[in-house]
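Q: Sequence in, structure out?
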Amino acid sequence: MDTHTFADRLRQLIGERSVNAFAHLVGLNESLLRKYLKGADPGLARANQIAERANCSLEWLATGAGFPYRHAEVVDMAAVSGAVAATKPFHPDWRVPDELTLKHFVAAYQFLRSAKKADGYLDVRGASLFLKAFINHCGSGNAVATSD
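A: Exactly. Output:
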């Protein structure tokens, strides 16, 4: 599928769903969504609303760069195992953290990535506080992400 324009990427995101069902999912009026499908570009607030509610990467939706979905939020343990198998011969003493540690790492990474300032500042203390609150709220934090 062609993904050169916002409308193309939006069509891909809608997939097999009806425009009405997708409009309901993202909280927009169907006529506004159809306007975007005909080539109108939404403002940043609307594009972000679509991305957040459809669990889509705003970068991809707006520009076509990166991945359509927020892969960083998912710990794909099969991919981790494959990466370990590929890496182990070069680093035989390296050990991969357990799945829960990886999920916590991904949650902290995603926090940092989403809160990164234009000047490159990363709020590591804020990420630590976020992770602490997250673990307290979700117990051990097993709900961070699910494996594919």
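Residues 143-148 have pLDDT under 50 and may be disordered.
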